[in-house]
Amino acid sequence: MKKYISFFRLRFVMGLQYRSAALAGVATQFVWGTMEILMFRAFYEADAAAFPMTLQATCSYVWMQQAFLSLFMAWMMEGEIFNAIVDGNISYELCRPVNLYDMWFARSMANRFSMALLRCIPVLLGSVLIKAPYGMMAPVSWKAFLLFVITLFLGAFVTIAFCMLVYISCFFTVSSMGVRMVAVSVVEFFQGGVIPIPFFPEKVREIMELLPFAAMQNVSFRIYSGDLSGKAMEKAVFLQVFWLIVLTAAGRGLNRIAMKKVVVQGG
Amino acid sequence: MRDGSGIALYAHYFKIQLKSAMQYKGSFILTCIGQFLVSFNVFLGVYFMFRRFHSVNGYAYSDILLCFGITLMEFSLAEAFARGFDTFSSMLSNGMFDRIMVRPRNEIFQVLGQRIEFTRLGRMLQAVIMFIYGVTKSGIAWDVPKVLAVIFMLLGGMALFCGIFLIYAALCFFTTESLEFMNILTDGAREYGKYPVNIYGKKVLLLCTFIVPYALVQYYPLLYLLGRGSLWYIFLPAGGFLFLLPCYGLWRLGLSHYKSTGS
Predict the structure, then answer these.
(1) Contacts of residue A24 in chain B, CB cutoff 8 Å?
(2) Domain coordinates in residue numbering, chain A
(3) CB contact (8 A) between residue A50 and residue B41
(4) Which of B92, B38, B45 has the alpha carbon at shortest distance from B64?
(5) Does the pTM exceed 0.95?
(6) A contacts of B48 (beta carbons < 8 Å)
(7) How close B23 gets to chain A, by Cα (Å)?
(8) How many CA atoms lie within 13 A of B195 on its CB side?
(9) Which residue, of A116, A217, B123, B234, is most buried by count of CB atoms within 10 Å of its CB?
């Protein structure tokens, strides 16, 4: 365990070095967020009664999405891991007395968390200053805030566990490009990245909420604003834990199979 | 390959690049599918929003489809020719551009010929489908000025997006790095261009009329198509071509500033 923690620390600190890149990214995220909110506002003005969340909850959702982009976006997968598998550098990693799965998990965590830490502070600070209902609201209660933090981490873990499956699949397919792009689109759509899950029609929504993708950003962002509470919230959190266990178990299993038949292509 | 026809040279570039892309057929096809899916997500987003809301700012679903189809088509056409600028920052930093400059051909032409992205076919395919779907579903009685309006929109929009790609590259002369912020003007415009610009409010409309003239190739001519604007709106996409002038100016300025990064 200790070696994974120190590996995490190392990577985390390394990630914090890219401060100016993060700052440039923050400006971009403000514009994306603003456009998104203007779009929702237009729909709100068209038919406020058909809006499934409050406008303020929706706007907060958009800002949190921008702030914690790096925790939940599947396209932030580690290029290095794919390269290592394709070009054979993986053999160095295999020589080390560590479990590949745990090591990659720690590495993804470090990268995502460091990037999120750099980007979330300016985005959150900025969006709090925007006037209601377009800015970021305060959490509905202390309890909701606490749950928000816990589910935020759970959601990030689910995302990473899912990405691990994509990495490992690369052992079997070698060319990762296709699987990767398909995975990215699927995750983005089904986790409520294009439009939040409450905006879908009832039937579609019921199915979507059972999928592992709904256990990513959807839960914590909606707990924060009070859009998700009571029984529905308990179920969502339970599903998060469930999917985290299933996805990591699947990942470990696949990893074991891959390790047995791994062929280093030379290079 | 003698002097003379640039088209023949471009065709040659085209052939070489196509051959190299075909070396990895599986990866090529999957990447195309991936590209398709990415913009398909955007369409699904629009679809489900309209399942719920039926209209926005007086636009019906079919109007939005038409708008989305045309914008996506404009973007894809521009991308087919000018996305080569995307990798321009790496061309600068690895010294490739120095090699280009010593050749007796126009630099822009060569930069574009270096990299023709065939995997964008996925998006192109989606754009064509959306465009046809939008045009047939729109319920518009097509006559000569309306057909002309669509053609002008496509041409003007293509020019506009080419101009933006050109700015993207020109800024690299000053920064060497490519700028993440520019994504707003390219991918962002494609993404948000699915809805007519005026739904984002007055300020955005003004910005998109006078600074980066998206509205000239999208919103105003669309108004005419939907029977809400006057005839002269169909000539507004010419603004897309006018926009190319400052872009080219910036490129020339950058070029005259250029010092090799060495490599």
Answers:
(1) 179-181
(2) 2-260
(3) no
(4) B45
(5) no
(6) 195, 199-201, 204
(7) 13
(8) 28
(9) A217
CB B165 within 8 A of CB B85: yes
Q: What's the CA gap between A218 and A221, in Å, rounded?
A: 6
- H helices within chain B, ranges in order? 6-21, 25-53, 61-82, 88-93, 96-101, 107-114, 121-137, 144-175, 187-192, 202-210, 214-217, 219-225, 238-257
The dihedral over CA atoms of B169, B175, B178, B179, expressed in degrees to the nearest 10, equals -110
Specify the residue for token string 């003004």: B206
Q: Distance between CA atoms of B115 and A133, rounded to whole angstroms?
A: 46
Contacts of B139 (CB under 8 A, 6+ apart): B62
pLDDT tens digits, residue range B180-197? 778 888 888 888 989 999
Query: Do residues B41 and B33 lie in contact, with contact meaning Cβ atoms separated by under 8 Å?
Result: no
* Amino acid code (one letter) for B22: M
Q: Are strands B59-60 and B55-56 parallel, antiparallel or unpaired?
A: antiparallel
pLDDT tens digits along B62-81? 899 899 989 999 998 888 87
Structure token digits, residue B98: 């120095």
Q: How far is A94 from chain B (nearest CA, A)?
A: 27
As a whole number of angstroms, the longest Cα–Cα distance in chain B is 60
Q: A99 burial class (0-12, 13-18, 19+ CB within 10 angstroms)?
A: middle
ipTM of the assembly? 0.87
**What single-letter DSSP state applies at residue B55?**
E
DSSP per position, A82-125: HHHHHHSTHHHHHHSSS-HHHHHHHHHHHHHHHHHHHHHHHHHH
